[in-house]
Design goal:
- The protein is mainly beta.
- It is built from eight helices and 43 strands.
- It is rod-shaped and about 155 Å long.
Length: about 550
């Protein structure tokens, strides 16, 4: 059983023709019906030219019934035209309206082409709807359709009363009459808007991008809803009738999908399979209307982030304070200080003391030795999540991009916590030996123990920058710090007093012994000394803590923008 389908009245014939486009040989022929009365629909004078191929056959006995191209002129038509007359079929006199053989002629054409006709009468041809209208409205005609499938099997069907209307009536199929044909050639029309095709990809209005493959593919061809038609509730409809058809796109949107027009002034949204239009869609002043990766919309310019309608300046974290505070836990993060476009990793304290602290020093055990040289203090060492020194080159670049406050957290030997807060903190670069600059002090760690270190250069065991020619403070205190010529007993008291004071008051752990009658120190605070230094002066100390506690259990130095 062969199937034919149509989408409009005038397209019914075209759909039949389209069906034949998938066969190897197709011919539509029309012949005058022989009637005993010899009557016709209209009475006309004897024409100058034969009105159809039946009259050609009757008038031209010299042709010996030869099939070929002849001039005919139906009643009322303005001028004669060529038509192929098939005189080999049955009694002859068949006027060929359409023939398709090897697909050498394109049948995907306009209304005008089908109205006027195209092709070549001896090969593939469409006679033309205007000619067929005049032809079929002058007598009663029989329509015969012949076709051959890919296997070489031939079929035909006939209709006893074939007629189409004029152009005003859109060449609608106004009559067919009784049907008959060869066995197994019954014609069945496809459902509305479906066509007979070997395409397998049908689409639904609800999901226009996904093919719905038919499960009934026993035959290579079948009725299908394809092309610009889609399935909605089991019916095949034009896609522009789908509820989420976006005219700007010229297609259907999936549920939850949006489409933005070419100049980014309107957005079409499909929600719950209903289309809504945002007529006030507009790009931000910091955005560009563009298509990227196949998606057309507003895009925020470089250095900004957002959906294109709203764009905010993109925050590249220069320190831990630039990280989002909500939901951000303590841990190691990448920041991008000035001069470090590829970023550096730091430990961020985000959950206490207001968060946003960039940690550059921590001591909690003797696992990481801090008695190191200039290069190691410059580049950093240790484990960021545990004990470490971030590195002077990083500390310099971070503290010179904004104004930072410094917080120092301490715990003494009894695990009592203290803190010191400085209103500003920065260090200079390597050429100036990472000189310290700090602001005013507050906190509960006693007096301002770092006062004497302010404006002093950094010293390590292999770079003595303390300015005290008598001693190498980094070596004496077994660490690295902003040392200075701070205190020597003999500079203030007699040798007899110092001989008694220095060994007797050994709880002054900041002082290192000098001979038997003298002692000295290079700072009132030193947090990079030996964690459990057994020799006086080599311990971690903060001089002004209660009890002159020389056994600090924890220190942490961190900064945050003011």
């Amino acid at each position: 059983m062969e199937k034919l389908g149509g989408r409009k009245c005038w397209q019914s014939v075209l759909a039949v023709l389209m069906l034949w486009s998938f066969l190897e040989l197709n011919t539509v022929i029309a012949s005058v019906v022989s009637q005993s009365s010899g009557s016709s629909y209209f009475v006309f004078q004897q024409p100058e030219y034969p009105r159809d191929c039946k009259e050609v056959l009757n008038a031209c006995s010299s042709t010996h019934n030869t099939s070929g191209v002849y001039l005919i002129k139906p009643d009322g038509y303005s001028e004669p035209f060529e038509a192929y007359c098939d005189n080999d079929l049955e009694n002859g006199g068949w006027t060929v309206l359409q023939r398709r053989l090897m697909e050498s002629i394109n049948f995907n054409r306009t209304w005008k082409d089908f109205r006027n006709g195209f092709g070549f009468p001896r090969s593939e041809v469409w006679l033309g709807n205007e000619k067929v209208a005049f032809l079929t409205n002058q007598k009663q005609y029989q329509l015969r359709l012949e076709f051959q499938n890919a296997a070489g099997q031939s079929y035909y069907v006939t209709y006893d009363n074939f007629r189409i209307s004029d152009e005003w009536g859109q060449y609608s199929l106004s009559s067919l009459g009784s049907y008959r044909g060869t066995p197994n050639s019954n014609i069945e029309w496809c459902p509305t808007n479906e066509i007979f095709t070997n395409e397998t990809c049908e689409r639904r209005c609800e999901d226009p991008e996904t093919c719905v493959f038919s499960t009934s593919l026993a035959k290579p061809e079948r009725c299908a809803c394809v092309g610009d038609y889609m399935i909605l509730e089991g019916n095949c409809i034009p896609q522009n009738k789908c509820l989420c058809f976006a005219a700007d796109k010229g297609g259907v949107l999936r549920n939850g999908e949006s489409f933005i027009n070419s100049d980014c002034t309107r957005r079409s949204n499909c929600s719950n399979n209903q289309l809504t239009l945002e007529e006030n869609y507009q790009c931000s002043d910091d955005a560009t209307c563009d298509e990227r990766n196949g998606v057309h919309r507003c895009y925020c310019n470089d250095g900004y982030e957002g959906d294109g309608v709203e764009c905010t300046r993109e925050v590249i974290p220069k320190d831990c304070n630039d990280l989002p505070t909500e939901g951000t836990r303590d841990g190691v993060y990448t920041i991008y200080p000035d001069n470090w476009p590829n970023g550096i990793q730091v430990y961020c304290e985000m959950e206490s003391n207001g968060g946003g602290w960039t940690v550059f020093q921590r001591r909690s055990s003797a696992a990481v030795p801090f008695y190191r040289g200039w290069s190691e203090y410059k580049n950093g060492f240790g484990n960021l999540s545990q004990d470490h020194w971030l590195g002077n080159k990083y500390i310099h670049d971070i503290t010179n991009q904004k104004t930072y406050e410094l917080r120092i957290d301490l715990r003494d030997s009894g695990s009592t916590p203290y803190y010191a807060l400085y209103s500003s903190f920065s260090i200079s670069d390597n050429s100036d030996k990472y000189r310290l600059s700090i602001g005013s002090y507050s906190g509960d760690a006693g007096n301002n123990a770092m006062a004497d270190s302010n404006n002093k250069q950094f010293s390590t065991k292999d770079q003595d920058n303390d300015g005290w020619s008598s001693y190498d403070c980094a070596e004496r205190h077994r660490g690295a710090w902003w040392f200075t010529q701070d205190y020597r007993c003999r500079d203030h008291y007699s040798s007899s007093y110092c001989r008694t004071y220095c060994p007797t008051y050994d709880y002054y752990c900041d002082g290192f012994p000098v001979g038997g009658d003298d002692c000295a120190d290079c700072a009132d605070v030193h947090l990079n000394a030996e964690y459990d230094g057994s020799t006086r002066g080599t311990n971690m100390f903060w001089q002004s803590l209660p009890g002159y506690d020389c056994n600090l259990q924890f220190t942490e130095m961190k900064i945050r923008p003011v």
